[in-house]
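Incident log, support desk, overnight shift.

02:14 A customer reports that sequence design results differ from what the structure should imply. Their input is reproduced verbatim below. On-call engineer (initials T.W.) acknowledged and began investigating.
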């Protein structure tokens, strides 16, 4: 199988240009697309004729709505867990490679940015959002965790914003993405073509500031203190109770999202975001994320979560356990080193 036309990779001027090209699938990232991007990055990193990398996407709806979940589900349902483990391990190495890339890496995060889309954009050196950006890490709702280095990004958001975004999968726009540390610069979408043309003509990222503007107002800064109060709890039940005591629309939505999430995913996400605050680099967080995902089909809620959300679309998953009953030892089991040891991620 080949990525083919699903990702367009070329050198234009002094720019390595990658374009996600599955607009009908909201540019969902397949394994072959990820590996093709990694090979291109290796080439461009060592090519003195390439000064920077630009990644964008075709279509008006999405930059990238996540990984190719259907392929993971179809193989997992047959009892083949190795495909997914290989997918995640190799994808995580790509995420770390982007975070450590020695040349400017510019991501045009226009439209929907979720899951795997975060992994190929938010670790870059120059992350650009528009008024069309809708970013979220909704993985707890399908029995996963905010992976692709998501726990690292969430851990470095202000206060307890990371716990809030990771546990609820709340959707945020440009200003909030910048506030939370997922993006750097707002550029109006009608200026993106001109910015792209300038970058491709010059290979000089300093021109980005000429196109930057103030984003439409966000919400996170205004509720940051309330989020701090609610999400400082030591467990999911404590957080849920604190949200229930609040008379605010955002808190009600957050409580409902947590109630719908996979209990083991929620408990592990809380543990992982907090642990990531002490990590030395995104590679440490990715290794911990792999511990969870390597088990999530066999011992977690991933297959049931994907069935309910994407396959059958009944939105009624039957998750194991209850959100108030996840023993600490169960979390420890999911986050223990996998058989064969942790994955290797060069840093």
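02:41 Re-run completed on a clean worker. Output:
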């Amino acid at each position: 199988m080949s990525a083919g036309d699903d990702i367009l990779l070329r050198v234009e001027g002094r720019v390595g240009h990658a374009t996600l090209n599955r607009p009908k699938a909201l540019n969902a990232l397949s394994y072959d697309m990820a590996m093709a991007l990694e090979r291109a990055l290796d080439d461009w990193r060592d090519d003195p004729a390439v000064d920077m990398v630009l990644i964008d996407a075709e279509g008006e709806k999405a930059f990238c709505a996540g990984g190719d979940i259907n392929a993971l589900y179809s193989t997992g349902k047959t009892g083949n867990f190795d495909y997914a483990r290989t997918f995640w391990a190799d994808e995580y190495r790509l995420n770390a490679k982007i975070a450590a890339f020695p040349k400017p890496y510019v991501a045009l995060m226009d439209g929907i940015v979720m899951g795997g889309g975060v992994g190929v954009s938010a670790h870059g050196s120059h992350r650009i959002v528009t008024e069309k950006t809708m970013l979220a890490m909704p993985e707890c709702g399908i029995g996963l965790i905010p992976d692709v280095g998501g726990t690292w990004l969430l851990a470095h958001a202000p206060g307890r914003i990371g716990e809030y975004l990771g546990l609820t999968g709340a959707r945020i726009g440009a200003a909030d993405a910048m506030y939370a540390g997922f993006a750097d610069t707002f550029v109006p979408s009608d200026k993106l073509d001109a910015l792209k043309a300038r970058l491709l003509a010059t290979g000089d990222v300093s021109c980005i500031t000429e196109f930057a503007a103030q984003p439409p107002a966000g919400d996170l800064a205004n509720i940051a203190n309330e989020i701090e109060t609610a999400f400082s709890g030591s467990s999911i039940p404590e957080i849920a109770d604190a949200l229930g005591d609040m008379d605010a629309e955002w808190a009600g939505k957050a409580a409902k999202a947590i109630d719908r999430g996979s209990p083991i995913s929620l408990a592990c996400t809380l543990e992982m975001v907090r642990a990531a605050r002490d990590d030395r680099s995104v590679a440490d967080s990715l290794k911990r994320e792999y511990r969870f995902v390597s088990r999530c089909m066999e011992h977690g809620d991933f297959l049931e979560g994907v069935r309910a959300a994407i396959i059958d679309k009944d939105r009624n998953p039957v998750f194991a356990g209850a959100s108030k009953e996840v023993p600490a030892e169960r979390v420890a089991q999911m986050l223990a080193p996998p058989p064969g040891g942790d994955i290797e991620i060069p840093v």
